[in-house]
Amino acid sequence: MTLKPLGIFLLALPLAAATVRIIQTNSAGDDVSIIDPVTNKVVGRITGIEVNHGAAAAPDGSRFYISNEAESTLDVVDGKTFKVIKSIPLSDHPNNLGISKDGKRVYIAIARGAGAVDVVDTVSMERVKSIPVKGPQHNTYVTPDGKFVVSGSVRSKVLTVIDQKTEEIVWTLELDKGVRPMTFVTNPDGSTKWILIQVSDFHGFEVIDFATRKEVNRIKLPDTPPGKVAIHEGGNISHGMAVTSDGKTLVVNSTLNSSLYMYSLPDLKLLGGADVGVAPDWVTLTPDGKRAYVANAGQNSVSVIDIATRKEITRIPVGEVPKRNITAVY
Length: 330
Prior knowledge:
330 residues; mainly beta; Methylamine Dehydrogenase, Chain H; five-stranded antiparallel beta sheet
């Protein structure tokens, strides 16, 4: 069996082709919710991880990797029993994480200290290095083609791109605001075309051209509609994005408006939006790109959105303050 983490860019697999699970961390609790997107029910729980943050899945389905903020560890979870089998000490307090396409490396954003991306070898289950970067790190990703690790700092406002094979920094870019969630738009050959970045105190996202390493566009999300209460809680007023498997639609959370907005790609035209729960913080998609699962940090729930109709299908109760989530296929 092969399991693939799909939190930011999804492979074109039909939903019925394999078992699909939404892995939902709950940042103010000690459990991780496992959702079946066929029934839209919580079908399992990983317990005993206090202040869990980021999640990744091994390609063979044998393990989940969860960043543990309370203990500053990467917790390794058995994929069948959902039990923690090892806690790997990190260099400092972690935030989000990413995994290499072959599953041999996990890259963890270290949110305290001078700044680092910790590297865990999943064979030895040990931290093997820390890559020094500028400023405490918030989120770490692996590009859809697997060639680069991309990390960002809120404090230093620096985007860092690392060669995945050599694990050396190849370029950096200082933005005008803190670097928060990202997603990727690809070229026809699968290489990275754009990095889309949500930044501090901006209700929208920036578009960074990967080849030229420059900002080429900045998109502002809709204003709060009349009669709707603006929400000022959570990490940022816009937090969480994803691209559908066909590369044609971008979905973007608005924490401010408690909404999920859809944009066409590559022209970045607003298609519309859907109301979700309070303070959406992250979003992941089903492999067919038809549904979005939005973590409502202010309401302890996950909204399920039909992307074509832009309607909420249901709302799933989960743990305390849900934030990062991923889609796993096996």
